[in-house]
Amino acid sequence: MPVIQIESIAQLADYVGREVAVSDWLEVTQERINQFAEATEDRQWIHVDPDRAARESPFKETIAHGFLTLSLLSELGQRAMSVGGVRMGLNYGLNRVRFISPVPAGARIHGRFALAKVEQIKDGVQATWIVTVEREGSEKPSCVAEWLVRYYA
After folding, report:
1. Which of 111, 121, 122 is nearest to 147 (CA)?
2. Contact 132, 59 (CB under 8 A)
3. Closest CA to 69 of 88, 47, 50
4. Is residue 1 within 8 Å of 22, Cβ to Cβ?
5. By the 8 A CB rule, do 30 and 63 touch?
6. Phi/psi at 146 (nearest 5 deg)?
7. Per residue of the chain (153 residues), what is the pLDDT tens digit?
8. Tell me: the pLDDT tens digits for 20-64?
9. What is the predicted pLDDT for the residue at 26?
10. Which of 49, 39, 115 lies closest to 71, judged by CA?
């Protein structure tokens, strides 16, 4: 998918109320899951032990941490769109997050980005994105989040 080019911070307001972009697919490998487990010290077997997961997990395979899926919003966003004239973008937080279905190791995900609101802040804007992370081949999304991003000119 092509990266959507938004010319400026001011132009963001033109996109409120609609889906702006969909990212390319990103594979969530077991290696990525293991690295996330090491970085966060969350080494629960459902994430890092394929043999045990195959035997004991209701999913029958390892799955990504929900927070790993959430942490990929920035990368998925960069794969989907670019806002011109931005000196700095900051992850300001989340209002609501739901992990609806698992992301098994080796699955591919992409993000759908809809712009809910744009508010003026000092030297920039705060955008409220509704992000839906979808897993290839799944009817249900893996994650839905209301994500706040601040863009500074």
Report:
1. 111
2. no
3. 47
4. yes
5. no
6. -100, 110
7. 789 999 999 999 999 999 999 999 999 999 999 999 999 999 999 999 999 999 999 999 999 999 999 999 999 999 999 999 999 999 999 999 999 999 999 999 999 999 999 999 999 999 999 999 999 999 999 999 999 999 999
8. 999 999 999 999 999 999 999 999 999 999 999 999 999 999 999
9. 98
10. 39
What residue type is assigned to position 55 of the chain? R
Full DSSP string of the chain: -PPEEE--TGGGGGGBTEEEEEPPPEEE-HHHHHHHHHHHT---HHHH-HHHHHHH-TTSS-B--HHHHHHTHHHHHHHHEEETT-SEEEEEEEEEEEE-S--BTTEEEEEEEEEEEEEEETTEEEEEEEEEEEETT-SSEEEEEEEEEEEE-
